[in-house]
Write a sequence for this structure.
């Protein structure tokens, strides 16, 4: 059986790992939220730009202006695709960090359970020892009385 102090050391180390994993998870979640926010801003900007483009078409555009609008929309679409990829990667990192955090948490909980079992086993051992002492005392008392 592992000594109680050893288990406590393992629990403390595992708790530190959980804390570090929690920090990493928090950072990755914030980065993911920021990536999503940038994506939303780009999408909104594209909608606004497309609206201006539509209004400009109604009032008339020169061929060069039309081409400039179209090229800029293409650039926005490329930026949107890149940002969507960044959001996807951020979600993957979040899931990896969450899995790492869960693994650390399970490891710590395993040590806690082992510590509880060791404590229960020690208490049972002490109870049996105390019961033996009581039984021996009663037996000796009975022998003296006879």
């Amino acid at each position: 059986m592992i000594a109680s102090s050893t288990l406590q050391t393992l629990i403390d180390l595992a708790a530190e790992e959980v804390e570090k994993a929690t920090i990493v998870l928090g950072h990755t979640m914030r980065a993911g939220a920021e990536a999503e926010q940038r994506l939303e801003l780009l999408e909104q900007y594209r909608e606004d730009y497309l609206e201006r483009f539509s209004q400009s078409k109604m009032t008339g555009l020169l061929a060069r202006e039309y081409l400039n609008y179209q090229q800029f929309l293409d650039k926005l679409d490329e930026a949107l695709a890149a940002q969507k990829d960044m959001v996807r990667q951020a979600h993957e990192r979040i899931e990896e960090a969450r899995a790492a955090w869960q693994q650390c948490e399970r490891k710590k909980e395993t040590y806690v359970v082992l510590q509880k079992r060791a404590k229960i086993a020690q208490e049972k051992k002490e109870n049996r020892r105390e019961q033996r002492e009581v039984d021996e005392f009663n037996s000796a008392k009975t022998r003296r009385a006879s």
User: Anything to note?
Assistant: DSSP finds two helices and no strands in the chain. The two ends are 43 Å apart (CA to CA).
